[in-house]
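To assess whether ligand presence alters the predicted conformation, the chain was also submitted together with adenosine-5'-diphosphate. Input:
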Amino acid sequence: MPDNLPALAFERVTETYGSTIAVDAVSLEIARGAFVALVGTSGSGKSTLLKTINRLVEPSEGRVTIDGADIAAEPAPELRRRIGYVFQNIGLFPHMTIAENIAIGLRIAGRREDAKVGELLDLVDLPRDIAGRMPDALSGGQRQRVGIARALAPGAKLLLLDEAFGALDPVTRDALGTRIREVHDRLGLTTILVTHDMAEALLLADRVLVMKAGRIVADATPAELVAGKGGDDAQALVQVPRAQAERLQALVA
Ligand code: ADP
Ligand code: MG
């Protein structure tokens, strides 16, 4: 794969629903190996933009390329095998064991299952002995970890996370975010993390995109954002964790 091609590119991608412009002519390049956070208030178009990558949404206009190739040229099921996709409250099959749930992704890819399931459980920091359990015998955080293991099972190099930690308590959420970043680095993934939580974005990502009314209104590094750059929309979001940190600091001052 030529290194000069972006892992992912949006070329004037637009998606309209009736009179609603969910995504408005977004053009963007994402480098291989980047960990990008996509932040914005509810309804700003984050999920719609993310879904144009695995063709759960077909754009009204524009195109998406992966490694330079138009994704519309490839059958959607094949495309989706190369893309890990995890969303809030990801559904595991309730009548299948954890191992069987993870192996679904492997079977599709035609891989040997048993050893690989163990490796995938290690990857998401779950004990191997839960492989025989049923999903309802796991906590919400453990189930999300299984969902991530399943998403990565076919060997996906692109990982899309849509509010994947949204339903978790803050401690579990923080631990899982940190683990995802480690997995990203270890496997050399390209990751897009959709979140409404600017603190999470700043702490995990290399690059933060802010979305508003279907457009990307800021594109900056966490360090730039913390230094006050990136524009008013970005700073309004950065102000939330900043004010919280100041109030906590004031308690001990
Ligand atoms: P976010 O993920 O940032 O909360 P979404 O991408 O889900 O935002 O939604 C962007 C806009 O598009 C919203 O106004 C939403 O109501 C609208 N929208 C999203 N999906 C659909 C759909 N399937 N049909 C109609 N409108 C939709
Ligand atoms: Mg959403």
